[in-house]
Structure formats: structure tokens, C-alpha cells
Amino acid sequence: MNRRIHSALTATVLTAAMSTPSLAQCVGGSCAPRGPSTRAFFPDSASRVFDPSRPPQLALPEGVPVGVAEHELTPEQTKLLAEHNKRRVEGERKLRVLWRNHFDNTKNAKIRAEGLAKLREFDDPALYPLLMTVFDRKDHEVRGAVLDLLAERRSYEADATLAWGAMFDKDEWFRDEAQKRLLSRVKTEGGKVPGAVSSVIASAFLTSDPHTHTRAGQLSQTLGLIEAIPAMISAQAGTSASPSRSSSDGNLATIVIGRQVTFISDLTPVVGENAVGFDPQVSTLTEGVYINVNDAVVTWRNVALNSQLKAWASALTGKNVAHLDFDHNAWRRWYFDDLKPQMTRRSQLVAAMVGEPESELAPSRTPANAQ
Predict the structure, then answer these.
(1) Phi (first) and psi of residue 288, to 5 degrees
(2) Which contacts qualify for 347-356: CB closer than 8 Å, 24 or more apart?
(3) Is the pTM higher than 0.70?
(4) For range 104-133, the mean pLDDT
(5) What's the per-residue H, E or C state across 130-187?
(6) pLDDT digits 0-9 by tens, 63-94
(7) Sequence ranges of the domains in the chain
(8) In whole angstroms, what is the distance from residue 369 CA to residue 371 CA?
């Protein structure tokens, strides 16, 4: 088995990764898009899909390609990667020592202040993901300092780490604080959302967790990422089948609708001195319908995400779209017939005003909370 470079970046094209059965129609082995085209989804980061199980690691050494098997690297690239990994391991060791000596079970204000000052020395982008995992305890003072450190760095590696925290961290307080700092960062950049942030949001839609989908939809709306709407349409409803089963696996369920009747199925005579008797055997007979369930397909709906989508879509087009509900075909028609033409006209108008060529789908990137 070939080991590949540890990185959250992959060569997977986002348009393929975002294709789902609910928005594709396959004929003769080839699939043609049936819903909103995902080519418009985060076009500036089409090759960046992050692993949601850990913060994105973007800081690979310069000259080391992403997604390449280690045996395919040149000797110089292998040396650079080894030095990079050694630096990360050493950085993790120092971070854990810092936590143990200055924060773990320590309430002394002076010691904690010294620790917070030392924490700011860890400004290597390769260590940003470790700041999220090493300091994952519910110490709001320390975790808040980590978020402040990332926000002050003003780099795409730090922004992606903030976005990961806002989407995937288990602590609701931390998710909210990470989102606040991320929105502030985007505002300082004039409303332009970094491609790395867009890719983290895209990865949230690739998970199977409906709560993560809802958070991603809310953040997309707040950031004005209209390109995320196709992913929201795909994630609001779908079907899932149970894993492949064999006859030896038994049944998923058994359903019996009927009534039971008792009767004497056997009678054994018992003879004694000057006496005789009988020993009856009572059995039960079931009459009705007996159903074995061997497999199942579940249809699910994310009501919270659907509500977000309908509210956002209505605000974008000025039309009430509540009637679209969970109908994928209706949403597809709305996307192509209403939203895209309106966004194209808006793009053309903006281009005419500033003298720049318009893009296929170029909505405003100004966050909803930006003034």
C-alpha cells in the first residue's frame, strides 16, 4: 500500500466530489448533471477538499507537491518533507509541554499569563492545526487566545483553521467564537472569502452529519457564498440504504398482525388404580399476516437547512420560494431559471460600472453582517 503525503488537501475535483445521486442522472454508465451545476461551487478552490476529522494542514514545504505518493518524490522533496514533519512533531511536543506547565489544572494568574505570552510564539503555519487539537479542553481563556492568535495572522492557513473550528469543533462556544473572528477577518478583506475557507465549508457539506450541514448553510449565507446553494440543495434531503446483507445476517425486523388461538394438540391418558385421567398438551396457533423485513431504504429531510435555504433564496430573488419545499426538481428549475439569470444580470451591471468582465455567477461576497 502506497502511503501518501499527510495533508488535508487532495486532488479530488470539487465538482465531482459534490455530485450526489439526488442531483445526477446516470444513463449507460455516464452521469449527466440533473440539478444545479457544481462547477460554480467555489471555483477558486476546486482542488481543495479537506478532511473534516481534523483541521486542514496546508503548510507543506515549498516544492513538495500535494497528493503525491511518497515513493514518487525526488530525494530533495523527500528531505524537505522529512524536515517538515520533524518540525511539526517537535512543535507538538512543545505545545503539550506548554499546556501541562502553564494551563493544566493551574489557576495561578501569573503562570497562565506567562503561558499565554509563550503561546504567541507558535506562529508557524504548520502548527496551526495542532493549536486546535492540543488545546481542545474546555478552557475558554486559552482557546480564545488560540483563536485570537489565528485571527491576527491574516493568512489563508489561519483562516482555514478558523473555518474548521467554526464548522467541526465539538464545543458550541468555540464554534461561535471561531465564526465571529472569521467574519471579522473577511470583513477586513473587503468581503472576499478566501478559497481555503470556501473549501472547508464545502467539506462540511460532504459529511453525513445534518447538524454540520446546517452550520455550513448558515455560515455560507452569512458570508454571502451563493456558490454554496447547490450543495445546500443536495444536503437538505436524500435517501440512504442499509448496508449489503446476506441471508445469514437475519432480518432487520419482523412484523406480525394477527390473533393467537390456543387449542389442545395432544391428549395423553393417565391410568391409575381404580382411576383414569388425561394429560392435555396445549398449543398456540397464530392467524394473520407475518412479515420479515430484510432490507430498507430511509428517506431523510433536514428541516433546519431547508428553512435556511428557503429564507435565503426568497431574499436573493425577492420571491417567496416556500412552495419549493424539498422538491429537488423544483429547486433545479429555480436555480437555472431564476437565480442564475438574476445573478448574471447583476454581474453584468457591476461589470459595466467598474469596467471589468463579468463571471458566469458572480454574487456579492459581502458578509451579511458587514456594514
Answers:
(1) 145, -145
(2) none
(3) no
(4) 86
(5) HHHHHCCCCCHHHHHHHHHHHHHHCCHHHHHHHHHHHHHCCCHHHHHHHHHHHHHHHH
(6) 666 556 667 778 888 888 788 788 888 888 99
(7) 14-239, 247-295
(8) 6
